[in-house]
Amino acid sequence: MKDFRLKNQVTANKYAQYFLLIFLFIVSLTVLEPKRTTNLYYFDEVSWICNSRVWGELTQSRWNSGVWTEDTVQRLNPQFAKYLLGIWIYPKYGSAGFTAFGCPGWGGLMFISGLEALNQTQKDILFWARMPAMWAGISSLILIYFIGRRLFNSTIGFFTALLTLFNPLFQQSTNRAMPDSLLLLLMLFCVLLMTQQLSREQNIFTTFQPLTAGLWGVLFGMAISTKTYGILTFFLFLVLSVLFNLKLLLKPKWKYKAIYTRIVGNFLATTGVMVGIVYALNPVFWASFSAFTHWFSDWQLFQVGLQKYSISINQNIALLTPVERFIDIWNAFILPGQWNTILLLPLISAIVFLIGLFCLCLFMAQEKRSKQSTSFLLVWFGVLFSSFLLYIPFKFERYYLPLVPVITMITAVGIYKIGQSCAKQLQFFPFAKTPKSRSHK
């Protein structure tokens, strides 16, 4: 009888998960699809549409054509997202999908006031070009659910996905013909695979696994080839590798062979494949090594040209470290002094976030598996947040998109604990049980 009840409970949990996923998909599509044709025009969208002509050059084996380097933006941004955008636009519109915007002479469209300044043909192409970003956003929400479920439980995963869905920056970024939501999807996929490694006794962080390390290299290379700051996933991988072996590193007599095979071996395998993928996906590097060095000099010129958008590390720290900014992070300004205040009650959001942080610290004192999941979430947050403080030099709010899921997950933990405290008096599902790591499953 007990086995029968247990089997029914497992079946019910499985159907409940299917229901949550279907519900999340329907809600996501309902929220994001209308915004695809109403989201404000962003000045960089036309540049990415024009730059996606590189897919046509790639399929025609024109590796050295001027399209690859026709402007500074084209030279600086990697190619993977452009390929996907080109794959999406070419079959429906052909070259007309680009001539409608006057590619490559699209500069004037960067300064138009909004969608009303575009003609109908341009609008149709723009709305069509936004669709891959929207689907990448919906897929990201599904991955967020699974990450939260694996680290804690289905309720926290579901709340995290919903909080992310209704985040203003997420809604904007997933309805732009730009690579930000694709990068988020790749980064979340890497994070999900990392959480799966936590459940294995012999994992990529504690043993030398060249094939697995090579797979990580492919994923990291794809992320970097989407946007350069996709390298943050690689940083997270390195930090986790060090932390998993910290006890070994702190011993008076190091086991050099173990250190080499665990950290250095995986690092070399991952880095080698990652560099190879970046090289393979970016034909602008194929001509010679000097093409790669020119890329760095172009970056220097680009940063000089965008000094009015730039902020120093000290300014970045001042911007991102106040308590309310932990939650209000997506309100980062685009131009100096031009703030876009979206949350009406940032203090309440900050309080919930801090409750989540406090609860995570409490979980650290619980059993090993809860400690492992909690530690992972805190490291994920710490690596991204500190990297943004030191790495992101511009005030473009879309750059902060990868922070949104981890911040909302911590907030979801806070909401869960508040609901759980109230539910103890009412015995209300789904807050009846303490979050428990699912990493052992």
UniProtKB/TrEMBL annotation:
<feature type="transmembrane region" description="Helical">
    <location>
        <begin position="182"/>
        <end position="199"/>
    </location>
</feature>
<keyword id="KW-0472">Membrane</keyword>
<feature type="transmembrane region" description="Helical">
    <location>
        <begin position="93"/>
        <end position="115"/>
    </location>
</feature>
<feature type="transmembrane region" description="Helical">
    <location>
        <begin position="376"/>
        <end position="394"/>
    </location>
</feature>
<dbReference type="InterPro" id="IPR050297">
    <property type="entry name" value="LipidA_mod_glycosyltrf_83"/>
</dbReference>
<feature type="transmembrane region" description="Helical">
    <location>
        <begin position="219"/>
        <end position="246"/>
    </location>
</feature>
<keyword id="KW-1003">Cell membrane</keyword>
<dbReference type="Pfam" id="PF13231">
    <property type="entry name" value="PMT_2"/>
</dbReference>
<feature type="transmembrane region" description="Helical">
    <location>
        <begin position="400"/>
        <end position="419"/>
    </location>
</feature>
<feature type="transmembrane region" description="Helical">
    <location>
        <begin position="12"/>
        <end position="32"/>
    </location>
</feature>
<keyword id="KW-1133">Transmembrane helix</keyword>
<dbReference type="InterPro" id="IPR038731">
    <property type="entry name" value="RgtA/B/C-like"/>
</dbReference>
<feature type="transmembrane region" description="Helical">
    <location>
        <begin position="152"/>
        <end position="170"/>
    </location>
</feature>
<dbReference type="GO" id="GO:0005886">
    <property type="term" value="C:plasma membrane"/>
</dbReference>
<keyword id="KW-0328">Glycosyltransferase</keyword>
<feature type="transmembrane region" description="Helical">
    <location>
        <begin position="342"/>
        <end position="364"/>
    </location>
</feature>
<feature type="domain" description="Glycosyltransferase RgtA/B/C/D-like">
    <location>
        <begin position="129"/>
        <end position="259"/>
    </location>
</feature>
<protein>
    <submittedName>
        <fullName>Glycosyl transferase family 39</fullName>
    </submittedName>
</protein>
<feature type="transmembrane region" description="Helical">
    <location>
        <begin position="267"/>
        <end position="289"/>
    </location>
</feature>
<dbReference type="GO" id="GO:0009103">
    <property type="term" value="P:lipopolysaccharide biosynthetic process"/>
</dbReference>
<dbReference type="GO" id="GO:0016763">
    <property type="term" value="F:pentosyltransferase activity"/>
</dbReference>
<keyword id="KW-0812">Transmembrane</keyword>
<keyword id="KW-0808">Transferase</keyword>
<feature type="transmembrane region" description="Helical">
    <location>
        <begin position="127"/>
        <end position="146"/>
    </location>
</feature>
